[in-house]
Amino acid sequence: MIYRPDNKITMDNSKLKERLLKIWEPADFTAFFEKFSKKGPFVVKKGTVLFNDGQPLDNLYFIKEGFVKLYRLSEEGRESTIYLYGPGQILGIRALTSKDECAKHYAEAITDLKILTISRKEYIEVVSLNPEYLVDLLHIFINRLNYTERRLESFVLTDTVARVALFLSDCASRFGEIKNNAAVLPLELTHQRIAEFVGSFRETVTLAVQKLEKTGVVKIEKKKVTILNLDMLNKYAGL
């Protein structure tokens, strides 16, 4: 903020301009939450539901460690997994973007978590004084839009092998340590868990995984997923 001689406060937009000139750079949510969260990181146990469909959202959640699945339930009680969140990502954005400020999905910890939170009110106060952080918020929507487009394409145009390949490729790009065209995923994955994310039956996913293993693209051993050839995996995914 800048104080003028007439005692009126004006906004210093130099940081916003600087951020816009580097708009392609990914957001550093770790630094943001460590700076502005009034509570230290706390642990959430595996299996905990962070929020339910229809529940008012008062906080944004930053994941320092662990993974969360976002899902919906049909009237018959069938679960449909929407998205996988992991380290460095934020949950609860609907608290900022929807009129009713309510969740439209369930969010469940599929591993133990370490998270930081900031209330909706606190976030708005911070951003009103530091508008450059709005650019970081924009990155969340861009990434989700890109993911949604890829997933829709996989459902419309491809088979289960391509869906599995796309899911594993996405996990590698967002969470894996990529080295020499290979990657190890930090999340344990069963065939059933993969089936939940790709919208297919476990038996069909098992056949798809076996094909990827036989061709030397991936290896899944004791729930640990190793991508042996990322380029080939991306070809199977249609990327």
Defining traits:
24% strand; Arc Repressor Mutant, subunit A; 239 residues; globular; 14 strands; four-stranded antiparallel β-sheet; Jelly Rolls; alpha+beta
Structure description:
The chain is α+β, with helices and mostly antiparallel strands and 239 residues long. The chain has two domains: 24-132, Sandwich (Jelly Rolls), CATH 2.60.120.10; 158-237, Orthogonal Bundle (Arc Repressor Mutant, subunit A). It is 41% helix and 24% strand. It is built from nine helices and 14 strands. It has helices spanning 14-20, 29-36, 94-97, 120-129, 133-157, 160-175, 191-198, 202-214, 230-237; strands at 2-3, 9-10, 42-44, 49-51, 59-65, 68-73, 79-85, 90-91, 106-109, 113-119, 177-179, 182-184, 218-221, 224-227. A four-stranded antiparallel β-sheet has the order 3-10-5-8. α6 (160-175) packs across α7 (191-198) and α6 packs across α8 (202-214). The chain is globular. The mean pLDDT is 87.
